[in-house]
Amino acid sequence: EVQLVESGGDLSQPGGSLRLSCAASGFTFSNHAMSWVRQAPGKGLEWVSSISGSGGSVHYADSVKGRFTISRDNSNNTLYLKMSSLRAEDTALYFCARDPGAAPQPRYFFDYWGLGAPVTVSS
Amino acid sequence: DIQMTQSPSTLSASVGDRVTITCRANQKISSWVAWYQHKPGKAPKLLIYDVYTLESGVPSRFSGSETGTEFALTISSLQPDDIATYYCQQYDTYPWTFGQGTKVEVK
Q1: From the CA of B95, how many Å to the nearest CA of chain A?
Q2: Which of A56, A92, B35, B105 is the most buried (most CB within 10 A)?
């Protein structure tokens, strides 16, 4: 059974940093691109970042480019999101999501999601 | 960026009703559209991808269609378990973008 479990969500002051983790199980992690998608309170879904199965290709939304870094550890089946220079508008529930396409061809939509990690940015 | 304008934002219908949610892209895109169902406190669930293809295990009352730059999700007979918020997503061009969501309620 595919499982994605996010952790690391917390309260941070503006300008602070946090690192989110997503522990994956039930599939061959390195075969799948992975993404982070967020949902601000009362708002819809917003794609944040994606990384290929090998980790060699990454993409970011303009709203986080230069501040967030996506990475993965295929030996430990874990996806990460390092968030720096946090702003109030980064407050959201952050979901980890799997791309169903097997490497080397991602599909660019998401077939499994976690429950999310809450991030609050406030002084 | 490709914008997906989703409507309506809220929909109230009776059990057994046929319900349609639409997303309009602000430019021509290929048939790279997915639909998700999201219930509070749960993980979003993939319903349909590539406009028409039903994800495994999803009830056949859900279907997808397209007409030009407008994409639609139809529930042929609304069930109580369908109460949720629904989102479209385009994956034609980065950045991937979602519609604003449609909250479906039962009358």
Answers
A1: 6
A2: B35
Q: What is the pLDDT of residue B74?
A: 98
CA distance A75 to chain B (A): 25
β A11-12/A117-121 pair status? parallel
Specify whether the CB–CB gap between B24 and B87 falls below 8 A.
no
Query: Of B45, B87, B91, which has the smallest distance from its Cβ to A45's Cβ?
Result: B87
B→A contacts (Cβ < 8 Å), by residue, are: 32, 34, 36, 38, 41-46, 49, 55, 87, 89, 91, 94-101
Average pLDDT of chain B is: 96
Task: Take residue B68 and report the two structure tokens written for it.
Answer: 């030009």
Give the bridge partners for A60, in sequence order. A49
> Hey, what are B28's tokens?
């021509």
